Amino acid sequence: MAKSKALVKKPVIDSLIYEIRDHKVMLDSDLAELYGVPTGNLNRAVKRNIDRFPDDFMFQLTQKEADILKCQFGISSGHGGRRRSLPYLFTEQGVAMLSSVINSPRAIQVNIEIMRTFVRIKKMLVSHVELARKVDAIEKKYDKNFKAVFDALRQLIAPPEPKRKQIGFGGKR
I need a labelling partner for 66 at 20 to 30 A (CA). Which of 18, 91, 161, 170 fits? Predict the structure, then answer.
């Protein structure tokens, strides 16, 4: 089977994943655009299948969170944008479930790329944690004279600062 060219590039998907309420999520409008369907159609399909979307798969922003999102990222609120409804957010599991309700060839291919992106992000986070543990273990074996070396190593392996600020009231990361 020949490999198909990805419909959406990884950096594009990466830039559409936000951390809100301590969850990595994607906006309904971003997903709709990637799938090539109107946001209203996506949300209607979800509402017709609402039992497939528990709170840990999908949730709606509060008005305050939506206002913060608009200010930080320039999300549209008029003429072609949202007018009445607050955005829905989909976690990784919610995005996976969308593939069962938005069943076009494009949506299937886009979902595959989104799932790969979520997996890649998880792997990066795990590798940073593992590396930090190894540095801690090695540091215990050496005397205090190497403290500066280990401090420098920790700075190098620290996860990069997120490009986007956390939205909502999730507290600690």
Answer: 161
For residues 3 and 118, the model is more confident at 118
Cα(151)–Cα(137) distance, integer angstroms: 13
Q: Which residue has the tokens 């930090």?
A: 132
CATH of the domain at 111: 3.10.260
> Per the domain annotation, does 64 fall within a domain?
yes
- Exposed, middle or buried: residue 76 (CB in 10 Å: 0-12, 13-18, 19+)? exposed
pTM: 0.62
Residue 172 lies in a domain: no
Higher-confidence position of 158 and 18: 18
Q: How much is the CA Rg of the chain, to the nearest whole Å? A: 20
Strand order in the sheet with 58-60: 18-20, 23-27, 88-91, 58-60
Structure token pair of residue 44: 């209607």
Identify residue 10 by its one-letter amino acid code: K
Q: Which domain holds residue 92?
A: 10-121
Beta strands in the chain (DSSP E): 18-20, 23-27, 58-60, 88-91
